[in-house]
Design goal:
Layout: H1 2-29, E1 41-43, E2 56-58, E3 61-69, E4 78-85, E5 88-96, E6 104-109, E7 118-122, E8 129-131, E9 136-138, E10 148-150, E11 155-164, E12 167-176, E13 179-187, E14 199-205, H2 206-212, E15 219-229, E16 234-236, E17 241-245, E18 250-258, E19 262-265
Parallel strand pairs: 1-4, 8-10, 11-18
Antiparallel strand pairs: 2-3, 3-7, 3-9, 4-5, 5-6, 6-7, 11-14, 12-13, 12-15, 15-16, 15-17, 18-19
């Protein structure tokens, strides 16, 4: 009799867990980010004679299965739902917010959200080493050969040592010619004056550099620095930075000066 009670309790516990996970999955499925757009595209999976894997054509790019999601689906930052696969409106295709190049797609069956989603990769990146969101887990398909990835986006780094008084925030604007490419700013989280000797870090990320040097080579860049002082006035830092750079380079600058005399790099 005692064993039957234990079995009954175990069965009840299992059913409760099943209901709980089913409820969680239903809640996830109903989230706005997983919904189809107003005009979803129906993508067809295509067979390849030389492979057991299928392909899909999305925005004139060919994608092939590459791996799976690493981590929990509920934490994934989705950018857009593009549509669905092979007429199945529950088998949906998403771009990832952490992949600015759209080299990867995530395919989710919203009726089986407890299953691990598949990750597809743009096949034009075959044999390349590309930036990859940390949620992508390669499956090791032989079709991808020597294709590689890196989880940290490369950058041109600038390290500014503050040997100046009254500085609260330093901002770097970087240009190609007269065209503003981007901005990088740094200061203390508590908005107090930066302590002398502290280092501030700035970067030109890979995605910006790719626009200037698609082949991954060197490119010309001009950086202008401004700062907000303790008196809340804005100062232009004399000196700036202008030269040819490439991803992986690191440059070291020292900021000197004060509110009365102005600021410059020495």
């Amino acid at each position: 009799m005692k064993n039957n009670k234990i079995k009954t309790a175990a069965l009840a516990g299992t059913m409760a867990l099943a209901v709980m996970f089913s409820g969680c999955n239903l809640s996830l499925k109903n989230e706005e980010r997983f919904q189809l757009p107003d005009n979803p595209v129906s993508f067809e999976m295509n067979d390849i004679d030389s492979s057991s894997l299928n392909t899909i054509e999305v925005n004139d790019r060919t994608y092939m299965p590459y791996g799976s999601l690493k981590g929990e689906l509920k934490y994934v930052a989705i950018q857009d739902c593009l549509g669905y696969l092979d007429g199945d409106k529950n088998l949906r295709v998403y771009t990832l917010n952490d992949d600015p190049y759209d080299n990867y797609l995530m395919v989710v069956n919203v009726d089986r959200m407890n299953e691990t989603p598949d990750i597809w990769r743009d096949f034009s990146t075959y044999s390349e080493d590309i930036f990859t969101p940390k949620i992508v887990e390669p499956a090791g398909y032989e079709e991808w050969g020597s294709s590689d990835l890196h989880y940290e986006m490369e950058a041109v780094q600038f390290v500014v040592t503050v040997d100046a008084d009254d500085v609260k925030v330093i901002t770097m604007n970087y240009y190609s010619g007269d065209h503003l490419i981007g901005t990088s700013g740094s200061g203390r989280a508590d908005e107090k004056v930066i302590t002398k000797g502290d280092k501030m870090y700035y970067e030109i990320p890979e995605i910006s550099a790719d626009k200037l040097a698609p082949d991954g080579g060197s490119f010309e860049i001009r950086c202008e620095f401004t700062l907000q002082a303790e008196n809340n006035d804005t100062y232009t830092v004399e000196g700036g930075f202008e030269r040819s750079v490439k991803l992986g380079d690191t440059f070291y600058l020292t900021l000197t000066g004060n509110q009365d005399d102005g600021y410059k790099f020495s």
